[in-house]
Design goal:
The structure is a single chain. With about 55 residues, this protein is mainly alpha-helical.
Length: about 55
């Protein structure tokens, strides 16, 4: 939950541009996380456990 300011949430008081920047930043962070996950499982054989090769 977001913090409350009076009877409104803090997110409601943000400007349209600020909300757009936050949303874009969240999407970029999620894309990085998804790319890391894809790279991790890229050459994995289906049905077999991952082997630690670090």
């Amino acid at each position: 939950m977001t913090q409350r300011v009076g009877n409104k949430n803090q997110a409601q008081l943000r400007g349209k541009q600020e909300r757009k920047e936050i949303r874009q930043g969240n999407q970029e962070r999620e894309a990085v996380r998804r790319a890391a996950a894809r790279a991790k499982y890229r050459n994995a054989v289906k049905g077999q456990p991952l082997t630690a090769t670090a």
